[in-house]
Amino acid sequence: MHADPDADRLERVLRTLGVAYELFPCDPAFADTAQFCSAYGFDPEEAANTIVVVGKSDPRRYAACVVLAPHRLDVNRAVRERLGTRKASFAPADETRALTGMEIGGVTPFGLPPALAIWVDAAVMVRPRVVLGGGSRSWKVIASPGILLRLPNAEVVDGLAGPAGGTARTPAAPR
């Protein structure tokens, strides 16, 4: 165990999953993905961000989406459709904090509220390893993406995100 309560809380959750992982300490000033990868020498293709989204309905609907850092989450179509709402957006920082107890730049899929759906873009699952937020801006989790499948409320979703500058979904082939 660490002298850091954030790391201790994270390790308690990770140990229950039965999958190898590494906790990687980082300077909170470098927690945002681009700065983290640059400062610590990680390939951005290995970094997966956990983004809380909200469907604007009454009551509001939430999900946590895990996508590769160089990809863009398809909020306006894939996420909105999955939430079953007319509008969806990234949850604001204060709403994310209230829902998860975590700060933007450190949100992790590990230890989220049990009712919160976790949608993992299929592209994350083909990486040999991923670097995920660690629940605070001071920690990252490095593991095989298979660790995400150990979460009871996680689901792999094709077309949830796509390369930035491209489209998140491949058009259907003509019939």
Note down, in words, how this protein is organized.
- The protein has one domain (about 5-160): YbaK protein (Alpha-Beta Complex).
- It has about 180 residues and is of the alpha+beta class.
- Helix content is about 20%, strand content about 25%.
- A 5-stranded mixed β-sheet has the order 5-2-3-6-9. Strands 1-8-7 form a 3-stranded antiparallel β-sheet, with helices on one face.
In brief, what are we looking at here?
With 175 residues, the protein is of the alpha+beta class. It has four helices and ten strands, in the order αβαβββαβαβββββ.
Given helix and strand content, the structural type is: alpha+beta
Count of helices?
A: 4
Total number of β-strand segments?
10
Helix content: 10-25%
SSE order in H/E notation? HEHEEEHEHEEEEE
Rg: 16 Å
The CATH top-level class label: Alpha Beta
Per CATH, the architecture is Alpha-Beta Complex
Shape: globular
Mean pLDDT: 91
- Say what the CATH topology is: YbaK protein
* Low-confidence residue ranges: 167-175
How much beta, percentage-wise? 25-35%
* CATH superfamily placement: YbaK/aminoacyl-tRNA synthetase-associated domain
Distance, first to last CA: 58 Å
What is the count of distinct domains? 1
Main sheet: strands, sense, barrel = 5 strands, mixed
Largest sheet: spatial strand order: 5-2-3-6-9
